[in-house]
Amino acid sequence: MKVLVFGGSFDPVHKGHIAVLKKALQIIKPDAAHVVPAYHSPFKAKSPTPFKLRMQMARAAFAPLGKNIIFDDYELRRGGKTYSYQLVQYLRQRYDNPEIFLLVGTDCLNDLHEWKNPQYIFQYATVVAGKRKGFSEHKADFRHLFLPGQFPKMSSTRVRAHILSCGAVPEDKVVPEVAQIIVKNDLYGLDVHRWLKAHLKPNRYLHSIKVAELCAILSDIYDVPVEKAVQAGIMHDAGKGFSGPELIAFCKEHKIKVPYFEDICRFEPALLHSYVSAWFAKHEFGVKDKDVLAAISEHTLGSLKMTTLSKILFVADISSKDRKYKDAFVIRTLAAQDLEKALLYAANRKLWFTIDSQKWLCPVGIELWNHLVKCAN
Q1: C-beta of residue 273 within 8 angstroms of C-beta of residue 196
Q2: Domains along the chain?
């Protein structure tokens, strides 16, 4: 008896998943095909998306592919992390002497030897994968099968980042049935966009989207997780809807720590929006990542200990595509080539904008400038 098994977080299911399972069903012609959403993948943090919703998305996406598909909650019933060899064990116990085909993504095919108890997998299952464009195949010393053709280069991470950055489900990557579940349940940042639309002016909301998009581009160049970059970008101005007095009152009420707080309150309270935005990211949107929260806090004035993510957001904020002044293009172009030089240029422009406007210069911005000049020399 042929048994195909396809496991994954499916967070969310995208068209790449559908294409590879469809082809596997056509080529292998299994008697049963188990789709097994992960409860907690051994290779990832536990998904905040409830198992029930990920199973719903799997059913909506895969059910039309065949009547012999079994939507298996095995990992939910086990709880905790489940390794692939345990999935193979489970199928061997469920069926009498099955011929098992384990469908995996090409991005993990070359890492199979590093999985838990890989020899058990190689002994009792044939590994099946679909090649994506750019895949570099290593010589495999275990039973394996490559499906014919090439498959879309997609990832659930990229789909989530896209939704969080622009507030819409990408039609070219997600089928309508799955998109409906995402929208109905406000998944992957759609709730954040709804909040931002209600609390920011339209041009400020658009700016947030453009900053998030540029953060995503720069994150690829400088090897920063795209979801962290997009998170920082879309939330960085959440506090911009407050007036100066409201920002001051909010910081005092919630005991938000701000350097040079008294001076900022007196001379330029609008600068407080960065710190208030970080508060909203943590307490309203549930962001726990310290790098993301620090980047949001630092996106206006910077700091002497900026991470790569902080630098990306600082630069993206001043050079996003909605910025119309001439230097925005220069900074944006420079950022794609040398982040440190772009940071220096951006800090320079911010200082000149402040001076030209005859506004107070916060010592944090001056300290950053002196620090960058020293590093550049």
Answers
A1: no
A2: 2-176 (3.40.50.620), 189-376 (1.10.3210.10)
